[in-house]
Design a protein that fits this description.
alpha+beta; 4-stranded mixed beta sheet; 8 helices
Amino acid sequence: MSEPRLRCGLGTLSVFLLLTGMLVASSSNPVGGQEQRLAVKPQREPIRVGGNVQESKLVHRVEPVYPPEATAARVSGVVILQVTVNEAGDVSDARVLRGHPLLDGAAVEAVRQWRYSPTLLNGEPVPVIATVSIAFPTDLERSQHRRTGLPLVIDELGNVQEQSAGPQEGDLTRKLNEANGVVFISPHPRVPFRVLEESLRALQKAGAKDVQFNGPYTFREGRLYYTVPAPEIQAPELALETERLAAVAKNSGRVETIPFAGDGRRVVLYQLFVNEVGEIAGVQVRGPQIPELEAELRRTRVVSPGRRGLESVPVVVLLVIPVE
């Protein structure tokens, strides 16, 4: 009597397992045989800052530790790196583009700890590639700001950083005051001209009074100029009457000449600031002022402004006027 019941129970179990298998198969293969897949968001390729990409802001900076072997070997310089910043603002990759074997490792280790605000493209965070520089100054450069000024680096995005220890927001003004407003700027080779100019204006508002450069630039009265000779910069063409200018200088009675290297002549040196539209924007003498000569120089006709490729750019020219 028990055997038929057992068979019935086994039959019921077989039917149950069969139905269960059909349900599992049905759930894994929907109607029409089309397989359902979860949508996976593709990873974005890092892009360079520019265009519609909003610039990221460095919110946490770690200074490199000067390697003891580099100190012992008296090695200094700037390490330039390409960094990849992910959507969260973390540095996910750092590669040395140019540097020194004794400094590269310390630079990479420091930069990997930097944090940025997320970079936005049309309002969405995206990974980006940027170029940053890390300065390893000499002992003389590290002490220079205590005597004459504050050494600063401006990166390709226009961010201002102190060479020896990156200033936090709020204490740059204090350090500028301690340096009597004198700054020594080392701009990144790829920082756009107008971005650099805006950064310098911000520094001026913060208290910078005397801006000097490690590079072919001059900053005067809120305007940035290329200083020629400089790579890729064509000097402006000026219609100068040198003999007449020399006569004006002599007749003024206030001329103070300096020896000119090479041929023993004595000369007066002036800087002419020529803006991008071909106007004389300023005149500056290296020595006592000669108002009559400066008035003549301001009337100088500019045949063509300075150029960088096809673009007209502001340029400062050193003018040598022989008077003896």
